[in-house]
Amino acid sequence: MIGNPNVMPRVPGKRVLIVDDNKSIRETVADYLTAKGYQVIQAADGIKGLDYGLSSPNDVIVLDVVMPGLDGVRLCQTLRDKGVTTPIIMLTERSGIADKEAGYNAGVDDYLAKPFSARELELRIEAIQRRSQSASKRPGEKMVRLGELEIDLTRHKVKVEGKDVSLTPIEFNILKLLASTPGRVYSRQELLNAVWDTAYEGYKRNIDPHLTRLRTKIEADPRRPKYILTVWGFGYKFNDAP
Fold first, then answer.
1. What is the mean pLDDT of residues 230-241?
2. Who wins on pLDDT, 15 or 207?
3. Best CATH choice for the domain 143-238 from the list 3.40.190.10, 3.40.50.10490, 1.10.10.10, 2.40.50.140
4. Which of 70, 105, 141, 221 has the fewest CB atoms lying closer than 10 Å?
5. Distance, CA of 217 to CA of 219 (rounded, Å)
């Protein structure tokens, strides 16, 4: 059954939008997550997914890659372009790095390969929510101001020249880590370990698309960054004298 975003009261942290043209997958996931206390909204194509993604306060969005109307990558890109920062998990049968890079460039936070178990998806949802919420729940942290950039570490807010900037949870956590220790160089693997809590070497370059998108949002000229600097052959650092 297709969910109606206006029917049920929202339980914080428990609203999941799943967008997949495979009815069996949608209903299997919906039945499992509903039994675990989640409110699940379903969309059978990218167009409806875009509507629900923009109109309802989701906590996590789960997208298939191949769908009629609007594929998952384009849907993700559109949501991000319209300021939606909700964590996004992409379901895919495509395991190539080029396909994943396209998704990460569009703003995907995590990937889950088909076939998958509903329990694994639940674990991914829980993990991605922990990551997205951790930055705003650490006591004693406050505002970081570097040049024209302001980072509110407790309220999860970023401003450039006084204007609000919408970041995905991963983008914010990367920025927070780098900005908290200006001048310190982080390898790609260190950033991955901090943001994704994974040590799988094969994914170490997946950090790059997120850094690229982050730069487009906070840098006046992303090709000549002022804040997030590349240390060639090693990784990235936040400029300690912007």
1. 87
2. 15
3. 1.10.10.10
4. 221
5. 6
